[in-house]
Amino acid sequence: MNHICNNALFSVAQIREIEQTVIRNGVSGFELMKKAGHAGFNLIKKNWPQNKIIYIYCGGGNNAGDGYVMANLALKEEYKIRLFALRSASNLSGDALIAAQTYINNGGEIEPFESQSIQSDAIVVDALLGTGLCRAVSDEFLEVIQHINESATCAVLAVDIPSGVQADTGKVMGMAIRADVTLSFIAPKCGLYTGEAKAHCGRLVIDPIGIEQHIIQSYKPQAKIIEFDPPTPRKRDAHKGDFGHVLCIGGDEGYSGAIRMAAEAALRTGAGRVTVATREKHAQLINISRPEIMSQAVESSNELDVLLAKATHVIIGPGLGTGKWGQAMLDLVLAWHGHVVCDADALNLLALQDNNINKPKWIYTPHPGEAARLLKSSTQDIAQDRFTAITSLQQQYGGLVVLKGAGTLVKSSEQLFVCTTGNPGMATAGMGDILSGIIAGLMAQDMEILQAATQAVHIHGKAGDLVAAHQGERGMLAMDLLSFVRGLLNG
Predict the structure, then answer these.
(1) What is the pLDDT of residues 327-349, one digit of tens each?
(2) What is the pTM of this model?
């Protein structure tokens, strides 16, 4: 199987253009369908070599055609096949009709769908709905998807995309197949890597079905997957002044933990010096718990001005609160001209302002709720299309945006990246504070803003994956990541 090795992600429209280019160059659509079917059947033999029973569920388009090709191949190798068609073979057209007729001519049988139980040792092939889905799943398709999802003991292979997932956005259109493996064709599709799709795709396998890489690479990708780029070793004569001074502003009364976590993350990432500007009640506690952090009591604007004059980079927001103190701190940072990581309550305060903010040196790190407040929308709107949401945020606020969540996105004015690391164990308080610290810590070491954001997101997620691998997802704490962050940065 000739897998794609680059990190480019494409839209459905681009995938279709690539397919049409290949067809114009002399490869028939049916030949591509046969290659897709072969890829699917070979994947079954490789992943489930002992399972000789296949249930194939076919819809009415080319996705169904891939299913019929797989059924025909399995029939030849004497698998037990049960093929359920939601659309009569006679109502198919084009390549899908040819595939169905070939299966029937070879003795294959087609059954109407009935909600009978699926054998526990069967492989289920989802060939119901393809990448063209643009409305909510309904009627018998909804019934079949629910039936397959409730058959928890069988393995499920989704052909090209889990039926019910919107391929450009990752949005679930009412209900979608929960696959163990998704075999997607030609090139990676944007929507499979973020949002709700993450809970439905299982393991993603991409097969270009024989299409040459130079054809695929002639199209500009919609986004790219973040790849890890290990930092170069430090010079042997380096000193702390070479690695920046991060000022972390936050921790209104009663909220000292978040800013302390962000500060320690910046230190563990490699920042030369880290200062916390916080309320007087917290300053001494932070000094005691982590003496390497320089914790300063800040109650007035003048006190923060002194610290800003010494800083190379700023984090503002963790535990900041949305009261007068937090607003006063944010107002000063808005007038500062350096690189800023804006998180948590700083984002909530920005969302309350009417004037436009355009800060080219800022990195905004909202989760979906904060993104909704910034855009005056809802979390449902954000989930509907995370790519559109992050683009709107970047256009409105400038700089660079990190939209957190399953499949975190990073957007500059020119480029869009998707993170493939991370896991549900990271859905716990403090994870965003750690991320802010990693971003600022990398920038403090002279890493360019986009590289710092993308690398920080990747490292943060990978550290979470390592924690999960060692101790499991449930019960993971934000601070558990730091030893692994340090290990990743040191090779």
Answers:
(1) 999 999 999 999 999 999 999 99
(2) 0.95
Environment class of 52 (CB within 10 Å of its CB; exposed 0-12, middle 13-18, buried 19+) = middle
Burial of 142 (C-beta count, 10 Å sphere; 0-12/13-18/19+): middle
In angstroms, the CA 166 to CA 53 distance is 29
Q: Which residues contact 381 (CB under 8 A, 6 or more apart)?
A: 372, 375, 389
Taking a C-beta distance cutoff of 8 angstroms, is the pair 315, 266 a contact?
yes
User: Residue 105 corresponds to which tokens in the numbers above?
Assistant: 């001519």
Its sign, for the CA torsion 264, 265, 271, 277, is: negative
Three-state secondary structure readout of the chain: CCCCCCCEEECHHHHHHHHHHHHHCCCCHHHHHHHHHHHHHHHHHHHCCCCCEEEEEECCCHHHHHHHHHHHHHHHCCCEEEEEECCCHHHCCHHHHHHHHHHHHCCCCEECCCCCCCCCCCEEEEECCCCCCCCCCCHHHHHHHHHHHHCCCCEEEEECCCCCECCCCCCECCCCCCCCEEEEECCCEHHHHCHHHHHCCCEEEEECCCCCHHHHCCCCCCEEECCCCCCCCCCCCCCHHHHCEEEEECCCCCCCHHHHHHHHHHHHHCCCEEEEEECHHHHHHHHHHCCCCEEEECCCHHHHHHHHCCCCEEEECCCCCCCHHHHHHHHHHHCCCCEEEECHHHHHHHHCCCCCCCCCCEEECCCHHHHHHHCCCCHHHHHHCHHHHHHHHHHHHCCEEEECCCCCEEECCCCEEECCCCCHHHCCCCHHHHHHHHHHHHHHCCCCHHHHHHHHHHHHHHHHHHHHHHHCCCCCCHHHHHHHHHHHHCC
pLDDT tens digit string along 44-61? 999 999 999 999 999 999
Residues 240-489, CATH architecture? 3-Layer(aba) Sandwich (3.40)
Query: 281: which 2 tokens?
Result: 């009640």
Domain boundaries, the chain: 8-220, 240-489
Q: Find the length of the chain.
A: 491
Task: Report the Cα 369 to chain-centroid distance in Å.
Answer: 17
pLDDT value of position 130: 94
Contact 422, 406 (CB under 8 A): yes
Do the Cβ atoms of 433 and 259 come closer than 8 Å? Answer: yes
pLDDT in tens, 136-163: 999 999 999 999 999 878 899 999 999 9
d(CA 402, CA 411) in angstroms, rounded, equals 7
Query: Span 8-220: which CATH code?
Result: 3.40.50.10260
Radius of gyration of the chain (CA): 26
